[in-house]
Amino acid sequence: MKVSDFKKWINSYVQNKKNTEHDNSKISFFEYLEYIKKFVYSRKIDRLQFPLEIYIELTNRCNLDCIYCYKKVIGSRNDDILPEKAIDIIVENLGSNPAVLVILEGGEPLLHPRFIEIFYKFKEYSVAVDILTNGTLFTPEIVHDLAKIFSQKYDSVQISLDGLGDYNKVNRGIYGNLVLDNIKLLNDAGIIPRINCIVTKFNYLGTIDFIFYLEQNYKISSLSFNIPMGHSFQDLILADSEAIELYEKIIKIQDKLHFNIFGTIINIEPDCYNCPPVRNESKDLFMRCTALRAKICIAANGDVYPCVFMENRIPPLGNILRDSLQEIWESSYSIKFVQSLIQKNGRCLSCVNSQYCTQICWGRK
Question: Is residue 83 included in any domain, yes or no?
């Protein structure tokens, strides 16, 4: 099988059968998010009037030292902690806005000394919250407090875990046992997280055992596979032949799982650079990047960027401590950025493979 044959599968793994009791007359909050993003992806809407997703870096502190950490590359690993005043301002900017998803990230967000209070503050205003964490810092007390107002319909937890035993340690510096124990804590409290796994040449051999172990022992909503992104980490990426072999094994077992599998294990950027664009005769457009089109990022010092990968790479759009989100979103710089982004991605927009390709991320170069 050729690498090019996989493009149609990228980010479109077959989903498990839908619950027959699902009420098709209503859509869930997360289905709503995907519904809106499809309009942005297809450029039926170039940009929304307000961000759909707001990434908030509570801190740049982290208790791990992953080998593919982009924060180290862009020089934002420091001791910044987002001040409570900034959280208050963000809440004021949002009001009671159930149409927005706030993503609490880092660094490691649980290292913020007032993490639970921040989560509660957003929930007080009925804002949906997604927590991106390495899963090492959950305690029975934290999970108990989280579960009190956590809604599986509107809130989510993503845990980064790259395998069992040594397979996680080689990527992330710790064995996976602690994280697995904490997933069990969450499960016991009624919280079903999703898992994100970065596949490298060091941990890929443990991937299938990892999938079956999760299937047999834990409740998770999905398992996403990704590869290290950016030229600094190209030497960590699997060879095509190894990625193809692993992919074929995953395809054979995915229908036997109670959770969905998403993502890509293949590095397709070199393909894109070396191949001429293939025109999409149907004229359907697909632009994966939603920076300043549907999302925005607030760094731990309050600076605002189009996305997390552009932090410290371009001048900030403003600072949440002095500028409102709406002002930043509607600024002439933001509008020009989107225009430039669309122009730079022109080659991808009309490519027949664009919908199944990770496309070129301008912030990850």
Answer: yes
Strand-by-strand arrangement of the 318-319 sheet:
260-263, 222-226, 194-198, 156-160, 128-133, 101-105, 53-57, 295-298, 303-305, 318-319
Q: What is the dihedral of CA 26, 32, 34, 38, to 10 degrees?
A: 100
| Residue at 60 is within a domain | yes
Backbone angles phi, psi at 53, to 5 degrees: -125, 130
Average pLDDT of the chain is 85
Mean pLDDT highest for which of 38-47, 105-114, 234-243?
A: 105-114
**By residue range, what is the domain housing residue 237?**
27-362
Which among 302, 306, 365, 312 is positioned nearest to 339, based on CA atoms? 306
Does residue 20 lie in a domain region?
no
pLDDT of residue 16: 33
Domain with 69 in it: what CATH number?
Answer: 3.20.20.70
Domain count, the chain: 1
Quote the tokens at residue 236: 């960590």
The strand pair at 260-263 and 295-298 is best described as: unpaired
pTM of the entire predicted model: 0.88
Q: How confident is the model at residue 359 (pLDDT cuts 50, 70, 90)?
A: low
Tens-digit pLDDT profile for residues 51-88: 999 999 999 999 999 999 988 777 665 678 999 899 99
Residue 18 lies inside a defined structural domain of this protein: no
Tens-digit pLDDT profile for residues 144-172: 999 999 999 999 999 999 999 999 999 99
In this structure, what is the dihedral angle of CA atoms 74, 78, 83, 84, given to the nearest 10 degrees? Answer: 100
pLDDT of 18 > 70? The answer is: no
Q: 362 with 314: CB under 8 angstroms?
A: no
Asked if residue 261 lies in contact with residue 254, where contact means CB atoms within 8 angstroms, the answer is yes
- Cα 257 from chain centre: 22
